[in-house]
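Record Sialate O-acetylesterase, 287 aa.
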Amino acid sequence: MKKNTILMCCFILISLIGCKTTPSKSAEEMKKEKFQIYLCFGQSNMEGSATIEEQDKTVNPRFKMMPTMDCADFDRKQGQWYDAVPPLSQCWAGLSPADYFGRTMLEKLPEDITIGVISVAIGGCDIRLFDKNSYQDYTDIYPEAWFGDKIKAYGGNPYARLIEMAKLAQKEGVIKGILLHQGETNQDDEQWPNYVKTVYENMLADLSLDANDVPLLAGEVVGEDQEGVCASMNPIINTLPDFISTAHVISSKGCTVREDHVHFNAAGVRELGKRYAEKMLFLEGIK
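=>
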């Protein structure tokens, strides 16, 4: 009887251990998880409107960027990885929140982690330019050539270009989050959170991502404390988590601005980028 009891206990123990066993990850999967990728989109502040200063030109080689268009001035080819020396979007752009997002992330992450960013942003665009089903209705918001040329540089479809590059990146790494800075062109439009929700959900579906694994971080525009021209948009931006449970709003309070009171200056952009990173690190459980 005693022997049977011992055998039964051993059987139960083995069964319990077996239930908790999970398939081991392959070396390739483990390597991909160490390359964390973030998608960035929006309008001029995300595009990069702040002056790139000398201190911004040196980056940790573990911080990478994938150009979303060819850039002869920087000897960059679309769809390849390079050290994330600004600009991170178009060749003619400036400093953006993505710059100091990546730098701040690496300050707190293990040394075997690499951060990669992919940015598609167009100054002056309506958020619906990123809606894959209606983007063609928003390609002529500004009749001037500068606006049309920016869209043409993305093959006429900025959203499709972002998804194309993201799929390339997924072969080497894991998409961990999406960074958005947009709202000035949609100022006071209370439907903006719904527009963002559509774009976010399309991104998740097109890239086979789970919202619980890929949060959306959305930054406020220049606020009232900086006499922001579009500050009235911030209360609407702050309702985004009511529409998207995995969305988080990044405060712009105290982030200094350029003379137009629409765009952040270099110091303001650096601070805003750090705040995006601090929120992402918090969500990852890293203090």
